[in-house]
Design brief:
This protein has 466 residues and is of the alpha+beta class. It is 19% helix and 29% strand. The strands form five sheets. A seven-stranded antiparallel β-sheet has the order 8-1-7-4-9-11-10. Strands 17, 18, 19, 20, 21 and 22 form a six-stranded antiparallel β-sheet that branches. A five-stranded antiparallel β-sheet has the order 13-14-12-16-15, with helices on one face. Helix 2 crosses helix 3. The C terminus is likely disordered. It comes from Pseudonocardia ailaonensis.
Length: 466
Amino acid sequence: MGVTISIDLLSGVYDAADPEDPRRAEWPPHPARLYCALVAAARDETDRAALQWLERQDPPLIIAAGQAQETSRSGYVVVNAVSAKGGNQSHPGRTNGLRVRSSSIPAASTVRITWCEEAPAGAVEALDRMARRIPYLGRSTGIALVAAAAAADECPEELVVFEPCSLLDREHMVRIPYPGFLSELDSLFAADRQAWEASRYQPYRRRSAESAAPAETEAVIPSVYTELVTLRFSGLAPQASLTVPFTTALRKAVLAVAGDSAPAALHGHGADGRPHVAFLALPDVGGEYSDGHLLGLAVAVPDLPPAERRAVLAAVGGLRRGEVEGTMTLNVPPIGKVELLQPAEVYRPWGASPQRWRRGSRRWVSATPVVLDRFPKRPEAVEQEIRTGLRKVGLPEPLEIAISKEPLVRGAARIRPPDLPRRAQGRPYRHIAVTFDRRVSGPVLVGAGRYLGIGLLAPVGADDDR
């Protein structure tokens, strides 16, 4: 029998915002948020041992209302950051900032999160002690009664089961605990940083009658990039031909924040043979009315040791302006200062969300052209060079490959030779479409310009779950 942590929302409201977009409400509740509340309620090593057992388990089932009404309210509050321009009358050095508070009103106020593995002796009791110390979940206005017990995943009629699934089938991207999560949270707390920086996401869907029975699921080849931090443009819609000026400016700004402590994967020196952090521009591509303008920027972070990963995320987060929540200013020569919003909106626009570029597909088409690593001696050797480039970044041998000097999907960028990264100029480049024998998760980056956003592929076709 597994472990179920029950949550009764005593006010009937779940006061929690989506970590990637505070203007949207979170539903269903994320297990990682519950785990963080348990960590805050832990008192001794017995509690921590139970938490370490919990983080090693497979992603849990979430049993909750299938529908929740989203509400929001806004107002000006005193910000925490101290500024020389502070104008608050009661708090010197601080100013007021507009905040939007989003909440969910579910059809039923009971939530159960179930881990199916049987717990070792004493773990359930420790989890229950911690759970009963939790006064609220989400914001402090979300008063909740929380308890843990050894129980099966029974689902009352008024609730539905949200279960882990493949990227192709996902309805929600949900933050979950993972091995090492407790240690990550300890490190972030010691550095006075936010818990969301340790987030990892798992695709979830509502359980259907067909999926209730165990079934083998097709393996998805993971991307070498485990995280994608997206930044949305505010009041700007540049063309994709400006990809490199934007990604170069973003890389320069992140490196400036990181300073001398920048890990090798960020600046690229001494990281030969390992994927580097990539800086991307996200175009509006693949839709019926896509016109190729850029929706935002992104930082793709490969699988790194925890200390390096924290350094990269801290450098990206360091771009935020203290007086305006979630806002960054980027100086892009010769365009000038550009405003970015972070966290980026997940669904509005869809093309600026991490899920747009991370989900699995068998068919991928270039949104920006792929720069060949070498100049082929014969025209017929171009395909072989592209196949070599696919293998170089860990992708399987494609079943089919199409190569063109023109875009192969609506909205794909038309790039001139001067628009390429400086080190890639003079090399041939092509648009490509590749089909694999299994699903590949993104982001997918190929070719000599991939670390500056040239060679970004988009999932399209029958596997596009948009």
